[in-house]
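Postdoc handover notes: sequence design on the structure in folder B. Input tokens:
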């Protein structure tokens, strides 16, 4: 067992050396862009909306290096957006200010900003941005140890991010779900989600995220009493975070390394590492990390018999603990749950205006019940008619839109078939020049195709997937699969490619 652990440690140190080279190169390449983007902000000919975009890009580049600079650029972008009533920039600014408030440990302000961002998203109809804000709110619940609520939000984010192809956000969902399962001592589920997060973050080269997952994986090994492997992952995480100048992450990794040394009774090393963590957290205003480090310093000084220093850090720890668990922060969390549910409902409900009308009329009905039951019945009838008419209008609009899309698709099919015919004619000409006509192509149908099967075949020729065909024809994927199997039998083919080719030839023959 000891040999296996040593071999793993050697592998991890080799991979750490490789990361050193890659991250150094990345840092050198990106270093020039900061000056260029700052210079753009001084360009008087540049439109304010373009300057807003540059401000948020700079905020993103400074977020893990200098939180004060990140806050400055985020605030500047927000002010420019407000000045020009640029709603996209205002919404993004609220998101940035919420994220930065969370980084500084001000959870109440973070929730306020995120809820304002969610309101802008709702008003502008940016449904694709919903998972990002939902993920931010879930993370706030996670930091306040509201694990059940956080888990529900993360699980709701996963299918949304998969649909949108948001790989970075999806990896974050997996990483945080793993953290929740680790808290619940479900190590198998936790390890599974960490592996999913690592795989995605390596593929998309998300160094910041990878460092976070390495740190969390180290904690998982530490919980299982494998302190050597836990320390190795902490050191890998610390190296990446130092290189990226991720101050908060560096403070976290240093604290965790100090905690390993404390468990191994290496109190001097524990004090050195934890003290550096405390100084970074205190300098940059990371209250949660400052609280953890002060507790670690209290333990280490107490273990060494430094009672006065231990008492000093214990007082710092208790003051920070009271601040982070304040009633105001908890109240904001409760308010956000109800506000989130309200915004989510109206964000995905296409009948929002009609529902508001119905709710108002139902309120009037409730008051009128005390005096006139007949009037109430009339109100019910009126509401029913309004709802039915609204649904009829919506169905008519949907049907009209579907017909329009169908006509458009038919036009595209004809265009594609025309292109296929042109290519086929060229092929025939080349074959005829070589005195070798096309032979052996069976374009005889075994059985006549139905209208729906013909539509499915046309989309197969275009190269659409089952899911895309189902969306075009408003059918389920299973129904599309059933139609394709019938096509294989009637066309006497074995796969989609053969079906598409034969479908093209049949269309050509039909037009001739």
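Designed sequence:
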């Amino acid at each position: 067992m000891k040999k296996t652990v040593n071999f793993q440690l050697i592998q991890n140190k080799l991979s750490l050396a490789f990361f050193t080279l890659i991250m150094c190169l990345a840092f050198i390449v990106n270093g020039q862009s900061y000056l260029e983007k700052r210079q753009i902000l001084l360009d008087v000919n540049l439109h304010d909306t373009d300057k807003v975009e540059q401000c948020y890009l700079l905020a993103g580049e400074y977020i893990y290096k200098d939180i004060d600079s990140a806050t400055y650029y985020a605030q500047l972008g927000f002010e420019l957006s407000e000045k020009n009533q640029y709603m996209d920039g205002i919404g993004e600014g609220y998101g940035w200010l919420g994220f930065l408030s969370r980084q500084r440990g001000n959870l109440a302000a973070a929730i306020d900003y995120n809820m304002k961002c969610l309101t802008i998203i709702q008003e502008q109809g940016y449904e694709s941005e919903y998972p990002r804000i939902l993920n931010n709110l879930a993370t706030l619940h996670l930091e306040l140890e509201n694990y059940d609520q956080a888990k529900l939000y993360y699980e709701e984010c996963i299918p949304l991010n998969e649909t949108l192809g948001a790989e970075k956000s999806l990896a974050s969902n997996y990483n945080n779900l793993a953290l929740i399962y680790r808290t619940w001592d479900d190590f198998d589920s936790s390890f599974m989600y960490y592996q999913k997060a690592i795989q995605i973050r390596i593929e998309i080269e998300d160094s910041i995220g990878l460092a976070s997952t390495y740190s969390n994986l180290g904690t998982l090994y530490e919980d299982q009493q494998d302190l050597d492997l836990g320390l190795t992952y902490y050191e890998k995480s610390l190296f990446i975070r130092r290189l990226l100048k991720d101050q908060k992450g560096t403070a976290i990794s240093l604290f965790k390394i100090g905690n390993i040394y404390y468990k191994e009774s290496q109190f001097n090393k524990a004090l050195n590492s934890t003290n550096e963590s405390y100084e970074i957290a205190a300098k940059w205003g990371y209250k949660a990390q400052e609280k953890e480090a002060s507790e670690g310093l209290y333990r280490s000084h107490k273990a060494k018999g430094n009672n006065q220093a231990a008492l000093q850090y214990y007082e710092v720890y208790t003051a920070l603990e009271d601040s982070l668990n304040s009633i105001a922060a908890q109240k904001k969390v409760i308010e956000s749950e109800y506000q989130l549910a309200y915004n989510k409902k109206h964000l995905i409900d296409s009948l929002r205006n009609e529902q508001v009308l119905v709710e108002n009329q139902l309120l009037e009905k409730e008051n009128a019940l005390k005096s006139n039951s007949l009037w109430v019945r009339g109100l019910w009838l009126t509401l029913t008619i309004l709802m039915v008419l609204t649904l009829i209008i919506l169905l008519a609009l949907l049907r009209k839109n579907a017909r329009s899309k169908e006509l458009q698709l038919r036009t595209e099919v004809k265009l594609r078939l025309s292109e296929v015919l042109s290519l086929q004619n060229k092929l025939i000409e080349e074959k005829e020049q070589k005195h070798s006509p096309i032979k052996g192509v069976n374009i005889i149908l075994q059985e006549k195709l139905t209208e729906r099967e013909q539509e499915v075949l046309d989309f197969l020729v275009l190269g659409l997937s089952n899911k895309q065909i189902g969306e075009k024809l408003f059918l389920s994927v299973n129904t599309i699969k059933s139609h394709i199997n019938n096509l294989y039998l009637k066309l006497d083919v074995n796969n989609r490619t053969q079906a598409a080719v034969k479908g093209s030839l049949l269309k050509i023959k039909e037009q001739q």
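Context for whoever picks this up: Residues 1-5, 26-32, 350-356, 434-441 have pLDDT under 50 and may be disordered. Don't rerun without checking with the PI first.
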